[in-house]
Amino acid sequence: ETFRKQMDSAEAGDNVGVLLRGVTKEQVKRGMCLIEPKTMEVRRSFTAEIYVLKADEGGRSKPFFTGYRPQAFIRTADCAVDVTLPDGVEMAMPGDNLEVDLKLLNPLPIVIGQRFAVREGGRTVAAGVITELGEDSKEDIQEEEERAAKSKAV
């Protein structure tokens, strides 16, 4: 339904209310997508081209290093993300454009070409676009399956 009116279909961008059988309210989180199966990849890791905002653009005044853990805002989801700089790059300075590897704390549906913001302490510090989907490790997949099983048991 949309605005208390029954609808037979919805399109991308529509605000809708949906009845999901067999799913609890706790299992649905901000940023999740209602999609046709196999149309998006749910991943933790990806490569992206980012621009690090300068202080006069509202960004950082100091560099960051591999291991930096800000929040990534992808569509309506926000999730902690671990940043790995490319080999040979010691630090990312404000004003830099560079390709980085990112690993989300929780998997999200993502696609190549998708734009996102990197935020820290309530301000945007970088903007990026996904260039490649990473292969999640067996440990990542097992950890997510265990988390999902725990969620169902509650």
Automatic annotation (TrEMBL):
One of its GO terms (molecular function) is translation elongation factor activity. It comes from the Eukaryota. One of its GO terms (biological process) is mitochondrial translational elongation. The keyword GTP-binding applies. Keywords: Elongation factor, GTP-binding, Nucleotide-binding, Protein biosynthesis. GO terms for cellular component: mitochondrion. Coiled coil: none annotated. Residues 42-133 form the Translation elongation factor EFTu/EF1A C-terminal domain. This is Translation elongation factor EFTu/EF1A C-terminal domain-containing protein.
